[in-house]
């Protein structure tokens, strides 16, 4: 259990102060609850035996000081006090229940934010190997499971443990032999449930895996619904979902039944003990059980509350055990994200220090989620002359073989350059290095006289990336062009300029709601070419000085391709925009100032179109 606790505390976003506050609330509630129960027993005894007032000095003193002559009136007053204390106890206990629910919901919110921040700040290399459905599953399902099936049960177990201690003390004070009888009966049952711990953990693991598998199957089936429909594999996915749903139902059924067991056991024990005590009292005291009424009253009430408390502790521990797989997953994920964060920052610092340059403040990197709001903040780099790649060597973490080997080249500001080469030559990897997404093991990337590794965020602020397939959000075209800018900050003039350059004017005029037309999930309402033009408009809107086009015109028809290429080229010459293109279609790079042909991560040829492409063809 200590291991679980350590992991829960690591995952929990709550501060130690809040946890201490929670513990204090639970202790207070348990005390009030024990007092509420403790007062009812003596009242029942007093109501059935008025002589008790004379026998108990405290009661007779209270009666005299209140000046009440009639005993029945005094008993009624004590009853009223008991009711008030009991009502106060109910209020506090109810408040604690609300506190538990609110506290764990707050933790769920904070955990979703903590994980989302971790994923968003994680380096690109982390995301290359990650499955999107796994991230969605972690953010939504696991955060919810942690809050409702780990943290809430932990709070309930804690609250009930304090209550158990308070009631146990009350019972020990009332009748020790009865407590010993109760414990002797309960202990074997608790040991029995404890012995099934590994089975419970197994059930929890199966439930979690089935849920994650269902999300993944749904993602596979609908992620490429076109292929699913054309190939006709709907049945295949349906059968997989049926199999997982049935597996989930079976385990859940067993688990729910198991969770009900402790209550039945304990209720039976309570009845047996109370009946046994009454019979025993009658047998040894033939005149009845008046003597034991008070003890029995407290015992019955305390046991009525004690047994549910034990039940809650057992169920909560069972629940936490069943969720241990989830806890391990979330703990692993967060520690991985944490270590990545430290490593990335350390790598960057190390690179900057190896280069013996003092790192500039990386404001956006540190700002985390505020990055989007900060878009447009002036960068700290001057880019007036050139970008220089100096002896860049890169290999992916899972292999020692360099994909880019000792590569050096210079790109002048305002130039339009292209990388060509056969599949696997290293074009995409080189562009990812240029984008600052992959950090080379050796070499440097200089912009004028500064290394980009001094301030990667500022470097990225100079660049726009237009991929082969543009990601569009299910929002208006306008919001897709001003991607990441809050609606009230969108600059309409810049939107018009971007639309013109990207040759989108006609497309938008033909749409029913013009710029406000919703493009549908993944831009399904637009053609491939139109989607790419929205991507180009997005880059132009964000005023970037360097455009990286990853075969960005591949989805355009010949006529539109010429229009887009020409307008980007004219933009390049008029505003000294620097263009870096990865191209397969050699027609798109005819106007480039310089073309680099890559092979096995090295530049094997460079020059203008005639020198590189036409010579190769002949
Ligand atoms: N995440 C990765 N992990 C390991 N190796 C990788 C990874 N991504 C790419 N590679 C390898 O790096 C080499 C270069 O790949 P890259 O994608 O840069 O080539 P490319 O020239 O862009 O190819 P294409 O034109 O087909 O996109 C290839 O051998 C590829 O297998």
UniProtKB/TrEMBL annotation:
Residue span, ABC transporter domain: 387-618
The UniProt entry lists membrane topology as: Multi-pass membrane protein
Q: Name one Pfam family in it.
A: ABC_membrane
The entry's localization annotation reads: Cell membrane
Q: Where are the membrane-spanning stretches?
A: 74-100, 148-173, 179-197, 264-284, 296-315
Task: Report the PANTHER family cross-referenced here.
Answer: ATP-BINDING CASSETTE SUB-FAMILY B, ATP-BINDING CASSETTE SUB-FAMILY B MEMBER 6
Protein name as catalogued = Heterocyst differentiation ATP-binding protein HepA
Q: Which species is this record about?
A: Acaryochloris thomasi RCC1774
Please name the taxonomic classification of the source: Bacteria, Bacillati, Cyanobacteriota, Cyanophyceae, Acaryochloridales
